[in-house]
Design goal:
Layout: H1 16-21, E1 28-30, H2 33-45, E2 51-53, E3 55-57, E4 73-79, E5 84-92, H3 106-109, E6 122-129, E7 140-144, E8 147-152, E9 165-172, E10 175-182, H4 187-199, E11 201-203, E12 219-221, E13 227-233, E14 236-241, E15 257-262, E16 268-272, E17 277-283, E18 288-293, E19 300-306, E20 311-317, E21 322-328, E22 331-336, E23 341-345, E24 357-358, E25 366-367, E26 373-378, E27 383-388, E28 393-399, E29 404-409, E30 413-418, E31 423-428, E32 433-439, E33 444-450, E34 453-458, E35 463-467, E36 473-478, E37 483-489, E38 492-497, E39 502-508
Antiparallel strand pairs: 1-3, 2-11, 4-5, 5-6, 6-10, 7-8, 8-9, 9-10, 12-39, 13-14, 14-15, 15-16, 17-18, 18-19, 19-20, 21-22, 22-23, 23-24, 25-26, 26-27, 27-28, 29-30, 30-31, 31-32, 33-34, 34-35, 35-36, 37-38, 38-39
Length: 512
C-alpha cells in the first residue's frame, strides 16, 4: 500500500498552524464506501470507539504511467499484548524512491519531482494505543485538526514501515489514538493534509455506509472496485476489475477478474480470472481478450476468453506490463509498457504475427479508426504516435497536452484526453496535425466517439463532458466518483467509476 521513502524536511517546528492554513492546497473528497465498510467491520470486533476518516486526498495519477489511479486499499492494524485489532491502514499508490539506487522500474514511476505528493500516493493510519492523551509521547505539543496532541516529525527507523511518517498522538472519548501520514516532499503540505484528515475523524458508526447497487438500464455494480477498463460487446459491457491488493479479509471489494455487465438489467457476473491483476480488456463480436500481470507466470499475460462457454481458451506470456489491447484488422495489438513496445498477436492462437515495434517510451492506451492505423498515447513524452500496422512503422509523432492517456479514433479524427492540463486534443488523422485543443474538467482519463459526438470522462471532477463534432463543449454530466474509462454500448454512453466499482449510463445515443 505504501512503501518507505526518505522525505526531506523544510518547515520549522513552530509552523504547524501555518501548515494547517495551507490545507486548501490539497482538497479532500469523501472516502469511498470501502473505507467506511472496513471501519464499521472493525468496530463490531473492537472494544473501543473506532475513528474513521470522512475524507481523504484523491489520487490523480497511477503507480505507472500506463495506469489510471489506484483504488484506495484498506488493511487492519494489530497491537497490544494479545494482538487484537487496533486500527486501520489506508492508502493508494507507492511513494517515489529517494536516495541511493532506484529500485527496478523507478525511472518511470515518478519522472517529475512534483509527483511526490497526494496526486500519486497516500499512506494514512489511525489506531488506538495505550496511554493517556499522548502527553508523554515524543514531539511537540500542538493543535492539529482542532485536536490537542503531540506531533512528532522526526524520522525513526524503529517504527518500521512508519519510519517516514509524521505521527500525531491525541485523546478522544477516553482513548488515546495515533494518526500517522507518510511524508511528502514538502513537510508543510504533509502537515496540512494530516490536519485535514484528523479534523474529519469520526466514530465509525456515525459515517453513512452507501454501498453501490444496480439500477436496471442505468447503473451496474461490478462486484468489486478498481474497474479500470471496459469494452462493449452487443448489450454486454466487459469490465477489467483490478480489485484491491491489500484489504480487510474477507471483503466485498472483489478480487481481480473479468466481469460481464448486462446493460439492460444491470446484472453483473464474474466470468473469468486471469493472472493476479487484470488491467485491460478488448472485445469483438465473438471473442474477448484480457491483459493481466502476475499470477503463476512472470510478466504479462494475454488471454483469449470465450463468453459463451465461460472458458479461458488460450493464454500467452507477453512482455512485462500490458496496459492496453486493441483489435486492428486481423491482429490483436498489446501495449507492452514494461518494455516500451507494441506487440502484435494472432487473435486466435495468440502467437506473435511479426516483430515487436519499439516506441521508445511507455505506451498507455490504443485506438484504431480503420483496419490499418493504430494510435498510441505516450504519457511521459506528451505525444501520440501513429502506427502503420501493415508496414510496422511509426508514421507520425504528434505533440499534444500534458500527460495524454485516453484516445479514441475514427477514419478522419482522433481525440486525446490530456490528464494534467484538463484538455482534449483533436487531431486530423490524415495530416497528423492538432486542429483544436478543448478545455474540459479536471483529469480527463478517457474519451469515446458516438455518431460524431465526443464524450470525455473526467476523473478529477467526477463528470463526463460532451463535445460537439467541432470540439466545442456542449454538456457536462455529473456522475460522481472517479470515472476512468468510457465506451458506447447498446445505444448508450457508459462510464466506469473505479473507486466504487460501478458502471454508469451517462446518456442515450442514436443507434442508426
Amino acid at each position: 500500500m505504501a512503501a518507505l521513502a526518505a522525505c526531506g524536511s523544510g518547515t520549522s517546528r513552530r509552523d504547524a498552524p501555518a501548515a494547517e492554513r495551507a490545507a486548501a492546497s490539497a482538497p479532500l473528497r469523501p472516502v469511498p464506501w470501502t473505507v467506511v465498510w472496513a471501519c464499521r467491520r472493525l468496530q463490531r470486533q473492537a472494544r473501543f470507539p473506532v475513528l474513521c476518516p470522512k475524507a481523504l486526498p484523491q489520487p490523480t495519477l497511477g503507480t505507472f504511467p500506463e495506469q489510471p489511479p489506484s483504488p484506495v486499499g484498506v488493511e487492519r492494524l494489530y497491537g497490544g499484548a494479545h494482538g487484537a485489532p487496533s486500527g486501520l491502514s489506508i492508502g493508494y499508490g507507492v511513494p517515489p524512491y529517494a536516495g541511493g539506487s532506484p529500485p527496478p522500474g523507478a525511472a518511470v514511476l515518478r519522472p517529475r519531482p512534483g509527483e511526490n505528493g497526494p496526486c500519486c500516493y497516500l499512506h494514512f493510519t489511525i489506531e488506538r494505543i495505550p496511554g493517556a492523551g499522548g502527553a508523554q509521547a515524543p514531539g511537540q505539543r500542538t493543535r492539529l485538526g482542532g485536536r490537542l496532541g503531540t506531533l512528532d516529525r522526526r524520522p525513526d527507523r524503529s517504527y518500521g514501515v512508519y519510519a517516514h511518517h509524521l505521527r500525531f498522538v491525541f485523546s478522544s472519548g477516553g482513548s488515546t489514538y495515533l494518526a500517522t501520514l507518510h511524508a511528502y516532499a514538502r513537510e508543510q503540505e504533509t502537515i496540512a493534509i494530516l490536519s485535514q484528515i484528523v479534523q474529519g475523524l469520526r466514530p465509525a458508526a456515525t459515517i453513512p455506509l452507501r454501498p453501490p447497487g444496480a439500477i436496471a438500464g442505468r447503473r451496474a455494480y461490478s462486484g468489486g472496485v478498481g474497474t479500470w477498463s471496459i469494452a462493449p460487446q452487443g448489450r454486454v459491457i466487459w469490465v477489467a476489475r483490478v480489485g484491491i491488493e491489500q484489504s480487510v479479509d474477507p471483503t466485498p471489494f472483489g478480487a481481480p477478474a473479468v466481469v460481464s455487465v448486462d446493460t439492460g438489467t444491470g446484472h453483473a457476473s464474474e466470468r473469468f480470472r486471469v493472472g493476479s491483476r487484470t488491467w485491460a480488456v478488448a472485445a469483438s463480436s465473438r471473442a474477448i481478450w484480457a491483459a493481466s500481470v502476475g499470477g503463476s507466470r512472470a510478466g504479462g499475460v494475454v488471454a483469449r476468453l470465450d463468453p459463451r462457454s465461460g472458458r479461458v481458451v488460450r493464454t500467452a506470456q507477453v512482455g512485462e506490463r500490458l496496459g492496453a489491447l486493441a483489435v486492428v484488422g486481423k491482429e490483436l495489438w498489446a501495449a507492452d509498457a514494461g518494455r516500451t513496445r507494441l506487440v502484435s498477436l494472432d487473435p486466435t492462437t495468440l502467437r506473435p504475427t511479426g516483430r515487436a515495434l519499439e516506441v521508445g517510451s511507455v505506451p498507455a492506451r490504443l485506438a484504431t479508426g480503420d483496419a490499418r492505423t493504430l494510435w498510441v498515447t505516450e504519457p511521459l513524452r506528451n505525444q501520440v504516435v501513429r502506427v502503420d500496422t501493415h508496414t510496422r512503422r511509426i508514421t507520425a509523432r504528434i505533440s499534444v497536452g500534458d500527460r495524454p492517456f485516453g484516445v479514441a479514433a475514427t477514419a478522419r479524427d482522433v481525440w486525446v484526453a490530456n490528464v494534467l492540463d484538463g484538455t482534449v486534443s483533436h487531431i486530423d488523422s490524415r495530416s497528423g496535425r492538432v486542429v483544436a485543443t478543448v478545455r474540459v474538467d479536471r483529469n480527463p482519463y478517457a474519451v469515446a466517439v458516438a455518431k460524431g459526438t465526443v464524450w470525455v470522462a473526467n476523473e478529477g471532477d467526477g463528470t463526463v463532458t460532451r463535445l460537439d463534432p467541432k470540439g466545442k463543449g456542449e454538456k457536462r454530466v455529473r456522475v460522481g466518483g472517479e470515472p476512468v474509462d468510457i465506451c458506447v454500448a447498446a445505444g448508450g454512453v457508459w462510464t466506469t467509476d473505479e473507486a466504487s466499482g460501478t458502471i454508469v449510463r451517462v446518456a442515450s445515443v442514436p443507434t442508426h
